[in-house]
Structure formats: structure tokens, C-alpha cells
Amino acid sequence: MENPASWTWTAYAAVWLSILALFLFSRNLRKKKLNLPPGPKPWPIIGNLNLIGSLPHQSLHQLSQKYGPLMHLQFGSFPIVVGSSVEMAKIFLKTMDVNFVSRPKTAAGKYTTYNYSNITWSPYGPYWRQARKMCIMELFSARRLDSYEYIRVEEMNSLFKELFKSAGKPILLKDYLSTVSLNVISRMVLGKRYLDESDNSIVSPEEFKKMLDELFLLNGVFNIGDSIPYIDFLDLQGYIKRMKVLSKKFDRFLEHVLDEHNAKRKATENYVSKDMVDVLLELADDPNLEVKLERHGVKAFTQDLLAGGTESSAVTVEWAISELLKKPEIFNKAREELDRVIGRKRWVQEEDIPSLPYIESIVKETMRLHPVAPMLVPRLSREDCKVGGYDIQKGTRVLVNVWTIGRDPTVWEKANEFCPERFIGKEIDVKGQDFELLPFGSGRRMCPGYSLGLKVIQASLANLLHGFKWKLADDMTPENLNMEEIFGLSTPRKYPLTAVVEPCLPLDLY
């Protein structure tokens, strides 16, 4: 006779297996009812990660040529939707912006930004809305940026002196550009050049630049644990270990910065804020804030300001000079405009830029072909919705491939050619309203410091073209100049540009 106990456990197991099977079957039925955008069939566990190479924006560009401007993929456990056209960018970043305004949670956001406490990675909600308001009203207001113009002028003059000293010798341009960007932003944010060799700083200049490079790389990598969470603890690529090490280095530096600023504020009665950290500390003391700004939040914002203000301008100007060295006729047109408008007896000022439409066009064309963030920063669908007749589920990660949009032949004639003339006489700008050109994004999550970035990029490029003759080093020809890129949160040249400069203005200007 069969043992009743064993029969009971068998029956229980059969019932539970039946329930599980019904659950999985019903879930599959629900999935089948969804009208998802077209895309490649995913593999078990990894989804479509096997289709993504070392340049993800280019991999997605190739896939979009097959599957269209709205594409669905699976990255491990998470659904991904990629928009690759002007129309899709407008839907995600404007029409339905409020539904796609949040951020996915990633290891980079957790470990390198004080658990999503900065402006870039914080999820949508009261904290982020307050941070955005701080940026618009305080940190990047026109009045405040104008008050810091003297800093940008002084640091630009330092750059010209350094280039003058190196005249006739091969230089790595990115090193000079990164230094001037870092000095500008550190004086605006921190109140001084914390990284001068003469300063007994807690971090050396070389170490700090390495920290910023690492921050950009780690915030842009495809960490496999972000896509397949149950193997995240294995840290198969070693990225999380690197993030933790980097976080400790930044925290040590930022603690030093805040301690120094607080000491000055306490030592002076009725202290007037002089830099952006002062402003943040003042806001942290404000009892009327909707969400209290904690010390770790001040550190997260400070790190965000330093990183964002340093990398984007240096990368863009290096790409611009690279493109001009490949096309000397464009270089000559730019010089002609500068000679006509500015003359040969002074440097270009920020107020001159609106009178230099060809220089502005070169900047726009560089940003079209070489956007610093080619897929912008990922967004997250907050609710189930429909886009273009297709179902987008809550929790879907959304990418807008501005690299593809910048090469769309239906939008741009000779889309792969560097041709600044395409912008002459056209009202297309980079301020987030023209969806064919979105180097800083658009909508609520647009880069809050774009106006500062634009000032530094335009003034730097104009003066580098105005004050120096440029040529490639080591007898390299324009045809042989390698234009490959590498991918992170920014997309710099794979091989830094080596060039030779010669001064071409009166020597007393240097």
C-alpha cells in the first residue's frame, strides 16, 4: 500500500509545479499580446548583449539600419528601446519627456556618485527636481557665469603662453585642453586651482586627471552586472572593484575641499559665497529646502560639476582641430573670418562669438559628427505607454542614439562629410530645441551646464585658430590621420592628436 505521507508530498509538488507552469504560461501569453518594436531575437540569459561591440553606439547604429528608428532589444534581464531618428528623439525627450525622465540604476550610479546623489544619475523625484532648480537658478545662471568670465579669460591666456613655449615641437593637444578646462572649472567650482604643483593639495594634478578619466570610463562602460543582476556579485569585468577604489579617492579629495570651505565660512562674519561649493554649502544650510541637501549630496554635486565641465569641452575642441587638419580649406575660411572680424591685434572675446558664424558652424558640425555622449545618458520608462503604435513597458531602459541622428542621410546631405557650411544661414542650435542636433540632450534631463560648455568650446577653438598655425606632426598627411574613437561616458579620439603649433599674432600678445 502507498505511503500516504509520500503521496501527500508528491501531490503538493505536482500542484506547485502546475501553478508555476500556469504562471509562466500566462506570463508568456501576456508577453505575446505586447506589440513590441522590431528588433533582433534575444538569446537566453544574455539577451542581445552578444551584438554589442566595443563601440556600442556604432553597434546600435548598424542594428537600426536593419530594424528601424525605434528598436527593441534585451540586455540580459532588461528590455531596451533605442530611438535613432529626429522623430523618436522628439517623442522621448519632449512629447513624452515626463514618462522617460528617470534614470536606470547602475553600478556606476551607486558606487561613483554617492548612491545616485548627483545631478546626472539621481532618479526622478523631489531630490532631482530640487537639484535641477539649483543648477538653473544658482549654479549656471547667466549672472553667475558672466561673473566668472575673468577666470575663463585668465586660464585661456595661460593656455596661449604654454602653447607659445612649445612652438615648433610636437604636442599632445588633449593634455593642454584638459588642463585649461580643469583649471577653469576648478576655479569656478572650488575657488582656486587645487591642482597647482605649488599647492600642497591632497591630490597631484596627474592623479586628479587620471581620476576624471577613470570616472568617465566607468560611467560609460557596459557593466554586465547592470544587465544580469544575479551575477553582479561576481564582478566579472572588475569594474565594481575599480569603482569602489575611485570612490574612495574622490571622497578623500572632496572631504578636504568641504572642510577647507567650511573653515573659511566660519572664520568670516557675513561670508559672501565666492564659488560653486560655497553656494552649495549655503543651500545645504537653508532650512526651507524641500529636501535637505546632505553633505554627501554636496560632494556628489561638486564631483558632477568638476567632471562634466572638464571632459566635454576638451574632447570637442580636439575633434574640431582634427577635422580641420584633414580639411585645410576649412581652416583657411575660419582664419579669414577671424582676421576680418577680430583683426590681428587682439584675442577673441566671448562677446565676439555671435559675430563669427563660421566658427559657430564648425563647432556645430563637430558636435554633429562627434557628440561627446553619443547615446546621451540612459533614461527609464516610468509607466507603460505606446510610442509609434508600439508598447513600451514600465522599467524599459531608453537610449537616444544622437550619433545615428547626426548621420541620417534623410536629415543631412553628405552626412558623413565634415561640412560646416551646412549650418550657415540656418537657425539650428544646440540648445535642445532642434532635434537633429542634440549634443547636450533635451528636455528636463538636458545637461544643465550646456551654456558654460558652449562658451568654453567656442572661445577656445576660436582663439586656437586665431593665434596659431597648425600642422600634423612627424610628416603625417591629412589622409593618414586616424579618426577612430573610444567609448565611455564621453567619446574621445582613440589616438590623441599630436600636432605642431606656430604663433601667428604679434609676439607681445603671448
UniProtKB/TrEMBL annotation:
Highest taxon, organism lineage: Eukaryota
Keywords: Heme, Iron, Membrane, Metal-binding, Monooxygenase, Oxidoreductase, Transmembrane, Transmembrane helix
Annotated TM spans: 6-25
Keyword Iron: yes
Residues engaged in binding heme: C447
GO cellular component terms given for this protein: membrane
Keyword Membrane attributed: yes
GO molecular function, one term: monooxygenase activity
Cofactor requirement: heme
BP terms from Gene Ontology: secondary metabolite biosynthetic process
Membrane topology, record value: Single-pass membrane protein
Record family assignment: Belongs to the cytochrome P450 family.
Protein known as: Flavonoid 3'-monooxygenase
Organism field: Forsythia ovata
